[in-house]
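A reminder from the course coordinator: this example appears on the midterm review sheet, so study it carefully.

Given structure:
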């Protein structure tokens, strides 16, 4: 009986492997960076069901196989519906979220996505945008990737393009205030005082740190500040 069981597993594993290979061809090509959250979960589920087919006894494998075929058919059907209907596509895949609009951080989308400024800053750095104040638009795509449009004149240029030698940057843009809270460690690292910070905020007509969404210190010594509740100019 044992040898027969192993032989069944051997045959079902080969069958599940070939069947999964066929299904991936049917579902079509899509890079990992292009996968939406639904595509990602669907792929994991299809792989799990294929594994169940491989290790289940022959009589029980039929149920797993039926579930696998049904899941693949539903995935294909929903994909076709998404191609034909923009509303269905938004429902299935979601839609882009504008996190920075015309240079202003959008608080509501960040809150809806449960994303803080540290995560936003990390995602910007991954797109070679080291300063929030240099960004005109930042859009979180349905696949989780961040698309960034730099402000005019802030696009990266090489030293050879500018025909200058350039000086080394002593520090990166640093958040000194985030969500109304002072970051004392960063102040200390930059040898700056709270009195200096309060003085800079007064230049922006801000009397309380609690009113500040973010204050970012740039390598050239400037402080970029955005108040809470500011979402930028209205679209024209």
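Designed residues:
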């Amino acid at each position: 009986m044992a040898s027969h069981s192993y032989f069944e597993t051997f045959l079902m594993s080969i069958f599940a492997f070939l069947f999964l290979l066929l299904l991936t061809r049917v579902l079509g090509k899509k890079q990992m960076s292009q996968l939406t959250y639904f595509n990602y979960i669907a792929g994991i589920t299809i792989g799990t069901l294929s594994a169940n087919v491989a290790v289940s006894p022959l009589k029980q494998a039929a149920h797993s196989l039926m579930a696998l075929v049904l899941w693949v058919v539903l995935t294909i059907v929903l994909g076709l519906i998404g191609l034909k209907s923009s509303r269905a596509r938004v429902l299935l895949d979601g839609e882009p979220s504008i996190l920075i609009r015309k240079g202003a951080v959008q608080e509501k989308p960040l809150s809806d996505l449960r994303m803080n400024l540290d995560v936003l800053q990390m995602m910007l750095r991954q797109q070679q945008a080291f300063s929030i104040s240099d960004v005109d638009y930042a859009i979180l795509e349905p696949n989780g990737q961040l698309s960034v449009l730099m402000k005019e004149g802030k696009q990266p240029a090489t030293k050879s393009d500018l025909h200058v030698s350039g000086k080394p940057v002593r520090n990166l843009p640093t958040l000194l205030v985030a969500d109304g809270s002072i970051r004392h460690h960063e102040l200390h690292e930059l040898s700056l005082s709270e009195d200096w910070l309060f003085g800079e905020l007064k230049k922006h007509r801000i009397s309380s740190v609690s009113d500040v969404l973010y204050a970012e210190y740039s390598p050239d010594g400037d402080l970029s500040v955005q108040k809470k509740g500011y979402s930028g100019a209205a679209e024209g």
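The chain has a mean pLDDT of 79. The chain has three domains: 2-91, 96-155, 168-231.
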